[in-house]
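Sequence in, structure out.
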Amino acid sequence: MNIEGTEYKILIGDRTFHCALDVTMHVIGGKWKTIVLWYLRKDSKRFSELRRLIPDITEKMLSMQLKQLEKDGLVSRKVFAEVPPRVEYTLTTHGHTLLPLLEEIAKWGRMMGKKHGKLEKVMPLARAKR
């Protein structure tokens, strides 16, 4: 990576990165991390809420992604001493620094959706009567 004419590399743990974008994609890359972060951007969510909001993700994958995001310091996990136990996930202060980036990525995605497809309103499913 070249900064003002000087070549640098970034060392994190045992990894060497030659581009700052590579660091970013290492932390938030993949299919699910940005989606999880997106749904945590406004408030805390329980595991089951995230699972409902992201229907295509498996429980195992969601669990793995949350653990990695927590390890990377982007998400915090709070366990409440209740019966049954309740766990909530929240963006950390460090995680909140990604919000402008996520907003721009979402904005670009909406633009691409409109340009190459169509934006279609999803009607909520009616709740079954008990």
